[in-house]
Design a protein that fits this description.
- With 234 residues, this protein is an alpha+beta fold.
- It contains four helices and eleven strands.
Amino acid sequence: MGTHQPDRRLPVAQQRQDRRGQVQAATAAATGLACFIFRFLRRPLSEQTDASGKAFFREILDLAAAKGGGRVEYRWLNPVQNREEPKVTLFRKVGDTIVAVGFYSPRATAAQARHLLDRAAEALAADASVALAEFQRIGGNFTLDDLYVLVVNMEDGRFLAHGASPALIGRNGHDLRDPKGKAVITDMINIARRNGAGELDYAWRNPTTAKVESKHTYFRAVDGKLVGVGYYTR
């Protein structure tokens, strides 16, 4: 993920929300960047959630109080694209005020991939048939932008689920190679057999850009199945 620099030539529109001075937002919509300033006073914003129900303002408040700053990832409406997209906000506590700058990230992060893998592994262990069907559901709980789940039978290498390419189901993953010839699925299975889990770098088609890009995938063995989730690193 690259560094986003605001265009200082653009006028910055400031808007005060709440007469008590709790929140002051300065936005440059054309760049997708936003700066927020809010205080540790009466805090109705602590109950604010994103599109998936994550209480990200509470996380900001708690991290600022405990560590003086940090970063938080969530989903929010991008006013330029008029759609919900992943967003990253960096923030710092200054006195009784928090200053934060956020930007929209069109690509999933490592943390998001690991979190989705945790959820997928838990679902697969609880009820494999239900989980495999859910992994395939477009717009479901396990597909998000360029994030999706893959599942392979470790005994024969055949795909049981692939959130981005359903046509792979039933195909032998041992036959697949990335553009550089890496046996991606074979390597994952071998690592999972030795260690129970692992991670791998390779090149794969990004479903959101339709381009072959560098990818880093986390995976683990669950009841004889390899389950993995990766993110694109360009």
